[in-house]
Specification:
This protein is an alpha+beta fold and 428 residues long. Helix content is 32%, strand content 28%. A hairpin with a 3-residue loop joins strand 13 and strand 14. Bound molecules: zinc ion (2 copies).
């Protein structure tokens, strides 16, 4: 594919004679990226299936990380391993000085007893890649292969971060705590997650991606009337939920429904606050502690809840029992940099067509990604890459028993994001 915005053109010039005139066509870097991706595609599929056959849980990604390090070394990258557990970083120095860009892939798998439907089944009982991190890892390695093939022309440095323990929400923080940003110093960071949209589509939201999530903790004085105060407090906290029990909101398949899902500006996935009604109740001699998870699409709304609970208890017949109400834990959320989102969308749509990126609306509930920790330190964008093939009944909804991915999305991921990184490096 050729476009006008291509900033780098390479020397592959072929002469064509048409009606006696010599015409010249140039293969741009982006043509070469597509060609090279096609060349390595079969090998990438083999590699993905190998990761799928040998999945490893959060914190146990020894084999996976060794395979990653070995592959990156074979491409000539400088490799640092065992960062924050089984984290691996590959450093690709371009031929000229310039910007520094990081690409993150998560590498761990999940516990599940649901049978694997593919031919290349997981060989580890009870463990399987049902969140697509085998695809993420393969795309990260594919981009490393493509860009290393053209490293002499790159202006700057590309860091490939392979992060363990995403599912436990610990790996990103462990890598940072273990000095990741002393080893690398990216100006921008990018990453993706497989999603149930059609294979090859890229979906992105220019701001908050996942709902804010906090754990509320309410401490009360112990009382002989324990059942009654626990019942009252659970009802009180649950009453702040503003999503009806019979709402389509609760069925995650509706996320991609064209009427109520995230493609629609009037999506039901906005302006919500949910309370998990599975409270944890801890009783000691002097006090009882209730805690549960509250999620919201709106940080201010979420932050207002402890005070509202405090006021309600203070005005109830249990007022003398109140000790404290606060969030005992607040999780960071994935928040995309609006400028980088818009600029990178423009790069991809100009190169690969308007249909290549689908904007989304609202905020996705009940999910998160510890990519958020990286974004706290470095501006970046987290994309969704469609992995479904509806005709073939392949639906890539992460964490569902039938999760399966149309592998053609690997080609799209490697091509689009290799091109995007090249263009970002070129933009000083
Ligand atoms: Zn997951
Ligand atoms: Zn995941």
């Amino acid at each position: 594919m050729k476009t006008k915005i291509l900033s780098l053109t390479f020397g592959l010039i072929c002469g064509m004679s048409v009606f006696g005139q010599e015409l010249k066509t140039e293969n741009t870097i982006h043509d070469l990226i597509q060609q090279h991706t096609n060349t390595i595609y079969d090998n990438l599929i083999k590699m993905r299936r190998d990761f799928h056959r040998f999945p490893e849980l959060s914190g146990e990604e020894k084999r996976t990380s060794e395979k990653i390090a070995e592959y990156l070394r074979s491409l000539g990258l400088e490799v640092r391993a065992n960062i924050g557990g089984h984290g691996v970083v590959g450093i690709l120095n371009g031929g000229k000085p310039g910007k520094r860009i990081a690409w993150r892939s998560d590498i761990d798998a999940l516990e599940t007893d649901f049978p694997d439907s593919v031919d290349f089944k997981s060989q580890t009982p009870g463990v399987r890649h049902i969140c697509g991190h085998d695809i993420h890892t393969t795309i990260g390695l594919g981009i490393a292969n493509v860009l290393s093939h053209h490293k002499d022309k790159l202006e700057g440095v590309v860091y490939f971060i392979f992060q363990p323990a995403e599912e436990s929400f610990e790996g990103a923080k462990s890598m940072i705590d273990d000095g990741l940003f002393d080893i690398i110093s990216p100006d921008e960071i990018y990453g993706l997650h497989i999603a149930p949209m059609p294979s090859g589509s890229v979906v992105v939201n220019p701001e908050l991606v996942y709902a804010y999530k906090s754990i509320i903790e309410i401490s009360l004085k112990n009382t002989s009337d324990l059942d009654s105060i626990v019942h009252y407090t659970k009802n009180l906290v649950s009453g702040f939920q503003n999503v009806q029990p019979d709402s389509k909101f609760w069925d995650s398949r509706n996320l991609v429904d064209t009427h109520v899902g995230i493609y629609n500006p009037n999506t039901i996935y906005k302006d919500y606050l949910t309370v998990n009604n599975n409270f944890n109740v801890e009783q000691s001699e002097n006090q009882v502690k209730l805690s549960t998870v509250i999620m919201s699409s709106d940080k201010k709304h979420l932050d207002s809840i402890p005070q509202l609970i405090k006021e309600a208890i203070s005005n109830s017949r249990y007022s003398d029992k109140l000790i404290s109400v606060n969030y005992s834990k607040e999780f960071p959320s994935v928040i995309n940099d609006p400028n980088l989102t818009n600029e990178t969308i423009q790069i991809i749509t100009k190169l690969y067509g308007e249909q290549s990126i689908i904007p989304i609306h609202g905020v996705i509930p009940n999910s998160n990604d510890d990519f958020a920790y990286f974004q706290h330190q470095v501006p970046g964008v987290y994309y969704f890459l469609g992995g479904s093939n509806y005709e073939a009944n392949m639906i890539s909804m992460p964490h569902t028993p039938d999760f399966v991915v149309d592998e053609t999305c690997i080609k799209t991921g490697v091509t689009y994001f290799s091109s995007m990184i090249v263009e970002r490096l070129d933009k000083q």
